[in-house]
Amino acid sequence: MTQPIEARVEDLLSRLSLEEKVALVHADSKFTTAAIPRLGIPKRWLSDGPHGVRQEVGPDTWKPAGRTDDFATAMPCGIALAATWNPDLAQAEGAVIGEEALARGKHIMLGPGVNIMRTPLCGRNFEYFGEDPFLASRIAVGYIRGQQSQGVASCVKHLAANNQELERMTINVEMDERTLREIYLPAFKAAVEEAGVYTVMGAYNRFRGQFCSHNDYLLNNILKGEWNFQGLVVSDWAAVHDTREASLCGLDLEMGTDKPYDEFFLGRPFREAVQGGDIALSVLDDKVRRNLRVMIGTGLLEGRPPGSLNTKKHQATARRVAEEAMVLLKNDDGALPLDPSRIKSLAVIGENATRLHAHGGDSSGIKAFYEIAPLEGILQRAGSQVNVTYSVGYGSDTGNDAIERAVQAAKAADVVVFVGGLNHDSNSDVEGSDRLDMKLPYRQDELIQRIVEANPRTIVVLIAGSPVEMGAWLERVPAVLLAWYGGMEGGNALARILFGDVNPSGKLPCTFPKRLADSPAHSLNAYPGTNGTVRYEEGLLVGYRWFDTKNIEPLFSFGHGLSYTRFEYSNLRLSPGAAEFDVVNVGEHEGGEVAQLYVHDAHPRLARPDKELKGFRKIFLKPGEKQRVSIPLDQGSFAFYDSDRRAWVAEPGEFTILVGSSSRDIRLQDKFTLRRPSS
Ligand code: BGC
Where are the alpha helices (DSSP H) in 68-150? Predict the structure, then answer.
């Protein structure tokens, strides 16, 4: 029991038969592996997903099991968590899901998802952490630390280059080495090296011709070789295609294959290959060691704490994430917050005001204990003094009547809150398909224009997990709030922001382009690929790296997000170890600000993006309060990946350090000369 982990691994390994070893490297139901009772190894439960513990299915089907004990706290979606820019909150969210995983008997939680937003259309953008590798890394590390602190293994997914849902099971991704290292791998690397993540999921797609769930280069060379990953690699469900590759190219646990369990590629065929001497026993032993290491490391063999479900603390964390995530995109003349004592009537319009989302999206969906829809939250908060009306306005079959009724409702009210956006239907924010364009569906553009004509005091609230076009009406509405999918407390969080109980402090983790054609992959016609292969022609220039380098004006820039108060920045001082500056709240409300630090390389030897996020800090200040903020600078802040040297290098020279409230709202800057050469 108290022996060091490796000694226990070796001891157990020596007592397992060949059959038992093979049983540990493939599934025996949709989400479990076999128990080995004589050695005290229990059945191991894996479960989705990144937003909470998913409902039970199976054992041999995806159909819901129809149970009453599989509810969970539904947290806001991944991109919302990233929009908080608050790694401590990510840690709190990870811990909540970890506690609930214990209560639900889950050992490995299949999240977080950290794939970079390459195109606004990717159906799973809502699950992931946006377009920037530094931000995604910080959020992932927080989340994993929180979850694993509970004795539950996280599973960072999907390694790698899983950036579109279109043809996701087969598409072959080609990109240059530097892009792989600088954009698509850092969040995985941080998960392994900084957070000590126990498990990694291989992706469905191919990378440089080989399927990612058994990809020699990604899994053996980089993950296990360079990063010294000691945990286990699990396949995505039905992402395995070949016994030999699965054995030799880095996979340790096969799940979801469409065959009887014993016939899995790492089942009987693998056992026979080992017995026949085609594959060395040491290959199997390495996989078993990794599986045992995760079991022992997380305390699975000891009997685990009971965990807890849907506690007040879990609910409060869900609400706080939702509140800190919401991004105030526009707010002219203090249109928000609303003052309930000065509003007699409020027209809530839009299908998303009443629609529930937590269960949607596919594998990340949650059977929530409850879900507060926006209308419910608004009704509760507005109180009986305000006459709140509701009109659906749009839906999958938007008819002229619905529009006319909404316009009448808008005319009759002091203020309109339109709640629209996207949902988890197919070709929207959903696993398994991409969006077809970047427009709001169901004639919402037309509806918003009609509403704002009828009542200029129209607040637009968007529930969405990826960028949408707003050009048709943005100039004419005074305020736009991006609420994401806010989990089960989303409606309460929204009402608290609308009425000013909470000051918005979220910032965009992705650029909102004016039109799809402005975004890199689409501008270069490099999506969704041809003849089964997609080439990432834009290379490093993903998201704001593209818009800034190419001087293209976005609709809303990366890092953007307004507040009900104002922050001033001053007194930047750079030293070799840190950038220090003052932030003061010069407005009337208490509020949170995310101070962002970007690095510009004045004379790069290899071309670099115009600027790159290298640090940030979220701080909360009372009116008049000032804080000196320190953001560390190290070699990594200046480094780029040199493919010839196969290493990250920080070369001496002149840089500009830019500090601001968004990637395009830079408040302070200064030159910095990096002196010591190093690599
Ligand atoms: C998804 C994974 C998920 C798995 C198990 C796959 O289709 O890509 O993210 O964890 O299913 O449900």
Answer: 78-83, 87-103, 133-148
What is the reported pLDDT for 137? Answer: 99
Specify the ligand 1 atom closest to the Cα of 255.
5
Which tokens belong to 37?
Answer: 């009772």
C-alpha R_g of the chain: 25
Smallest CA-to-CA distance from 125 within 113, 137, 112, 135 is with 113
Give the active site residue among 48, 236, 445, 610.
Answer: 236
CA 499 vs CA 258, 315, 342, 493: distances in Å: 51, 20, 11, 10
pLDDT tens per residue, range 282-299: 999 999 999 999 999 999
- Say yes or no to pLDDT of 18 above 50: yes
| Residue 584 confidence (pLDDT) above 50 | yes
Contact between residue 358 and residue 366 where contact means Cβ atoms under 8 Å apart: yes
Q: Which of 494, 371, 353 is nearest to 73 (CA)?
A: 371
The rounded distance, in Å, linking the Cα atoms of 527 and 487 is 31
pLDDT > 70? residue 679 = no
- Which segments of 360-433 are extended strands (E)? 387-391, 415-421
Mean pLDDT over 202-219 rounds to 98
pLDDT confidence of residue 142: 99
At residue 587, does pLDDT exceed 90? yes
**SS3 for 632?**
strand
pLDDT bin (cut points 50, 70, 90) of residue 196 is very high
Q: Is 661 helix (H, G, I), strand (E, B) or coil?
A: strand
Helices (H), 396-543: 400-412, 444-454, 490-498, 520-523
Residue nearest to atom 5 of ligand 1 (CA): 237
What pLDDT shows up at residue 334?
95
Residue 463: pLDDT over 90: yes
158 alpha carbon to ligand 1 midpoint, in Å?
9
* 70 classed as catalytic: no
The pLDDT confidence band at residue 100, using thresholds 50, 70 and 90, is very high
Residue 6 alpha carbon to ligand 1 centre in Å: 30
Residue nearest to atom 2 of ligand 1 (CA): 236
Compute, in angstroms, the gap from residue 528 CA to the centroid of ligand 1. 21
Q: Which atom of ligand 1 is nearest to the CA of 203?
A: 8
What's the confidence (pLDDT) of residue 2? 60
For the stretch 293-352, pLDDT in tens is 999 999 999 989 999 999 999 999 999 999 999 999 999 999 999 999 999 999 999 999
> Using one digit for the tens of pLDDT, what is the confidence trace for 374-396?
999 999 999 999 999 999 999 99
Pocket of ligand 1 (CB under 6 A): 48-49, 110, 157, 236-237, 363
Tell me the CA–centroid distance for residue 363 and ligand 1, in Å. 6
* pLDDT beyond 80 at 636: yes
Q: What domains lie within the chain, and their CATH numbers?
A: 5-9+11-36+233-297 (no CATH), 325-523 (3.40.50.1700), 565-674 (2.60.40.10)
* Residue 678: predicted pLDDT: 46
> Do 623 and 590 contact (CB within 8 A), yes or no?
yes
Strands, E assignment, 132-216: 153-159, 172-174, 199-202, 206-207, 210-211
* Closest C-alpha among 563, 435, 428, 417 to residue 85: 563
| Residue appearing with tokens 């999240």 | 111
The pairs formed by 237-241 with CB atoms below 8 angstroms and a separation of 24 or more are 237/30, 238/169, 239/169, 239/202, 239/203, 239/204, 239/211, 239/212, 239/213, 240/211, 240/213, 240/214, 240/264, 240/265, 240/266, 241/211, 241/214, 241/265
* Of 330, 374, 368, 371, nearest in space to 351 by CA: 374
Best mutation site among 240, 363, 430 for ligand 1 pocket (most ligand atoms within 8 Å of CB): 363
